[in-house]
Amino acid sequence: MEKLFQLKENKTTVRREIVAGITTFVSMAYIFFLNPQILGQTGIPTQAVFLAAILVAVFGTLFMGLFANVPFALAPGIGMQAYFTYTIVFGFGFTWQQALAIVFLVGVVDIVITLTHGRRAIVKGIPAELKAAIGGGIGLFVTYIGLKNAGFINFIVDPGNIITLNGKPFTGELHGALNSILAGGGVTPELTKFNTSSPLLALIGFIILVVLVLRRVPGAFLISLIVTTLIGIPMGVTNTHIGAGTSVGHAFGELGHVFGQSLGAQGIGSLFSDWHHASLALVTIFAMGLSGLFDAIGTLIGIGNQTGIFSKQDQKAFDDSTGFNSKMDRALIVDTFTTAFAGIVGTSNTTTFIESASGVAAGARTGLANIVTAAGFALMILFAPFVGVVPTAATSPLLILVGIMMMGEFKKISWESLEVALPAFFTSVFMAFSYSISYGIAAGFIFFIIVKFTLGKFKEVSPVLLIVSAFFLLNFIALAFV
Q1: How would you label 270-281 residue by residue, b for 16+ Cβ within 10 Å and e otherwise?
Q2: Over 70: is that where the pLDDT of 63 sits?
Q3: Angle at 264 between CA 258 and CA 269, to 5 degrees
Q4: Domain residue spans in the chain?
């Protein structure tokens, strides 16, 4: 144990690591109930998504603990869950099999970038304030989805003017509402009157969650999820019927129909069937990979440097070394391989969860804590039959609050400077209101170049930014002729 995890060198003990690992597990367990609710809308069997998320989380968390020896747990990221469902499937018209293929390819591309140290050029080539705008924009995106799912905000679109995208009705969402306006249709945004049970339950759940988080109660998200679900029983919102076809065995049967679909004819085999789909797929792969890279690095540096898990030598090795000797290098390798695995198993992109900070705060300093956390994740398999019990009203408050927390990235932006504010604003606003992280990144990059060119500071634009922006422009030109 000592030789494997170097407990004395990291100034920790077995007991402390076990307690911290349990703390991280309790803080993250809610994600397994949220994941099937979001991805299940695409048509993927919900129990399959539930198990896929667990298998990926166990794999990534164990891999992180044993290979990188750091206490950072992995699971499907909330922002990427939303992107998978609302942009890739609903927005761009890909099937869920093709969307999983995109996730797999994102992992493969990230693996190549990480192993060739191309990530260093990307990280250094994109301004810090644009990275912050991307993080905050995803927060806006997630918050809006939470508000919609909770029923707090509704868009009433003229039934006589239903807008479709790739043959599918795209009403009821902000994107569809805006399209309806442009097409001359009627749309009325309205705040819910809380005269129905579901929005009222979501409001109760959100208040409970806020109180628990502000009081810093361990496992606040999971407790809120359970309590809100229970309150929903007498309100008639929670589905208490657990019928046939909801056993653990049935869940694994559903997983069998999803596992490997990304690599089949309906997945990667049809992803590049025509130039229109191919261009969308390439842009999406790049945008998801970029977002995941920033997310992982931000979490690792933000938690690791403050607690001493990553020493100054680790940081220097990450910035300058050509090898993979630092903990941060190895942690990023784990992050990328886990995303590729997620695409094969049947869930959205994984990320290093910020909730790992709860375990670190409880004393975690080595990968031993991850072994305990992964064991907790594995036990979650027993709850597969209860996936359909948790109502949307119980999960939507979690989305809202997570989005609010992510918007803290905006404080890193110098809003008083128009030179900085313009590209940052368009990055975050386009991301949230167009339901597309890709379009947000594209808008921000392009406006950044325009601003720098106008001010005679074109030399400040990195080659990476120019290449990426040119790719986005070519994609938009191609889409204009569809």
Answers
A1: bbeeeeebebbb
A2: yes
A3: 135
A4: 1-151+195-409, 153-191
